[in-house]
Amino acid sequence: MANPAHVFGPDRPGSRGEHLLQRLLGSDARAAAFYDKQVLDHLNPRMRDFIARQEMAFIATADGHGECDCTFRAGPPGFICVIDDRTLAYPEYHGNGVMASMGNIVENGHVGILMVDFFEDLVGLHVNGRAQILGDAEAAGWDLPHEQTAPRRVERWIAVRVEEAYIHCAKNIPLLMKEDRRAKIADRSVRPAGSGYFTGEKTKSALEPSSERSTAGTQSPSEPIPDRPALPRTPVPQGRPISSTQAPPL
To answer: Is 53 helix (H, G, I), strand (E, B) or coil?
Structure first.
């Protein structure tokens, strides 16, 4: 089998492993066409518009040993902020305190983000790059929203230097319908699962109305709800710096 010049050359994106499989399985010509036509090293105007409409994203990270984690993030449209054509930033909201994704970023700055439009265009966008946790002073120099309303309190911002951006095609993406989450919860047609859903632990969803709480807003003696102390704003080890001509220096 012929070995195309691009298979292991530095002029193509992707890993050595994918290039090897392309050669062995005979898809190298199709892959080369995809690289040439679809994979960019920046966000073009349509990609930037797409990101501004998205309300959810799947974010993949790995630690220094290559152990992987994929997490889900959601927010209002545009919660992932495009800083310029080579830089974006997304918020880390107040959560369970594990900080798995940020912990991976401290060890390994590589990050992969997948945003999918399930509701209209049935298309996805991959953005791969290098991530860095922004400190308070660094985040203050960026044009980032400062929404602090519970439960969407932003704890940190993650900045990503874009290295690859490309389409996830529409094939097999399900068409979903948006509904008003708050209305569904209020009329109890949807019951948000608590944190013990998979472990069997008896817990309550924070969004589920509780008849055991008094009208005065006091806690029920039979099921106390501890206060959540604010997380300390201590310095966080930083990943590799992001280089951008338009974004403020980190």
So the answer is: helix
From residue 4, how far is each of 13, 27, 29 by CA, in Å?
15, 11, 9
Task: Give the pLDDT band of residue 146 (cuts 50, 70, 90).
Answer: low
Our separate counts of H helices and E strands in the chain read 6, 7
The pLDDT score that the predictor gives to residue 112 is 98
Q: Which region, left, alpha or beta, applies to residue 97 given φ > 0 means left and ψ of -120 to 50 means alpha?
A: left
Amino acid at 104: N
Residues pairing with 160 in the sheet: 88, 131
CA-only gyration radius of the chain, Å? 21
Query: For residues 12, 16, 20 and 25, what is the CA-based torsion angle, rounded to 10 degrees?
Result: -70
User: Per DSSP, what are the bridge partners of residue 84?
Assistant: 87
Task: Identify the weakest region by mean pLDDT among 57-71, 75-89, 186-200, 207-221.
Answer: 207-221
Instruction: Give yes or no for residue 104 having a pLDDT over 70.
Output: yes
Alpha helix ranges (H) inside the chain: 16-25, 28-38, 45-53, 100-107, 136-140, 181-186
Q: Which residues contact 147 (CB under 8 A, 6 or more apart)?
A: 76, 153, 154
Q: What share of the chain is helix, strand, coil (3-state, %, to 5)?
A: 20, 25, 55
Residue 160 to residue 62: CA distance in whole angstroms = 15
Across the range 161-184, mean pLDDT stands at 93
What per-residue confidence (pLDDT) applies to 188? 86
Q: Which helix (H) or strand (E) holds 89?
A: strand 87-93
